[in-house]
């Protein structure tokens, strides 16, 4: 792979990881909003069919959230593998924490990629817990649908 293609691929993979994290946050927020709305509807004594419709929407959100979580893990490890494969020596030379103003495109791209990986790593433990919660929530919702 030529240097230009490697840099292009690095940009793309970094952007994919960034976008996937944003998507995950969006669906996390949407899940919270649906749960809040459903609780409010139950407290107001709304029609059971309206509540069930909102629960179906919540269920769909949980399914999409689970898929986005898989994509996040995949894009994280793809970027990490790519960096190791093509830039392992360069990364060893650069202290990412104290990187001065990047003077070339490669340094800028590496710093951005490193920052995205760190951001994903910081959220990774939280995401693992969310994944367990989603599995439990999904199982509960499937049980509710059986009734």
Automatic annotation (TrEMBL):
<keyword id="KW-0143">Chaperone</keyword>
<dbReference type="GO" id="GO:0007023">
    <property type="term" value="P:post-chaperonin tubulin folding pathway"/>
</dbReference>
<protein>
    <recommendedName>
        <fullName>Tubulin-specific chaperone A</fullName>
    </recommendedName>
</protein>
<keyword id="KW-0206">Cytoskeleton</keyword>
<comment type="subunit">
    <text>Supercomplex made of cofactors A to E. Cofactors A and D function by capturing and stabilizing tubulin in a quasi-native conformation. Cofactor E binds to the cofactor D-tubulin complex; interaction with cofactor C then causes the release of tubulin polypeptides that are committed to the native state.</text>
</comment>
<dbReference type="GO" id="GO:0007021">
    <property type="term" value="P:tubulin complex assembly"/>
</dbReference>
<dbReference type="GO" id="GO:0048487">
    <property type="term" value="F:beta-tubulin binding"/>
</dbReference>
<dbReference type="InterPro" id="IPR036126">
    <property type="entry name" value="TBCA_sf"/>
</dbReference>
<dbReference type="GO" id="GO:0005829">
    <property type="term" value="C:cytosol"/>
</dbReference>
<keyword id="KW-0493">Microtubule</keyword>
<dbReference type="GO" id="GO:0005874">
    <property type="term" value="C:microtubule"/>
</dbReference>
<comment type="similarity">
    <text>Belongs to the TBCA family.</text>
</comment>
<dbReference type="InterPro" id="IPR004226">
    <property type="entry name" value="TBCA"/>
</dbReference>
<keyword id="KW-0963">Cytoplasm</keyword>
<dbReference type="Pfam" id="PF02970">
    <property type="entry name" value="TBCA"/>
</dbReference>
């Amino acid at each position: 792979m030529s240097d230009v293609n490697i840099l292009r691929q690095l940009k793309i993979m970094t952007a994919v990881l960034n976008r996937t994290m944003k998507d995950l946050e969006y669906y996390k927020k949407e899940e919270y909003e649906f749960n809040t709305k459903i609780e409010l509807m139950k407290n107001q004594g709304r029609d059971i069919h309206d509540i069930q419709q909102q629960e179906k929407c919540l269920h769909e959100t949980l399914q999409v959230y689970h898929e986005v979580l898989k994509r996040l893990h995949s894009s994280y490890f793809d970027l990490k593998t790519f960096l190791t494969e093509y830039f392992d020596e360069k990364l060893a030379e650069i202290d990412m924490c104290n990187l001065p103003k990047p003077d070339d495109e490669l340094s800028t791209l590496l710093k951005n990629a490193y920052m995205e990986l760190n951001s994903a790593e910081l959220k990774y433990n939280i995401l693992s817990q969310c994944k367990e919660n989603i599995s439990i929530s999904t199982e509960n919702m499937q049980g509710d649908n059986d009734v």
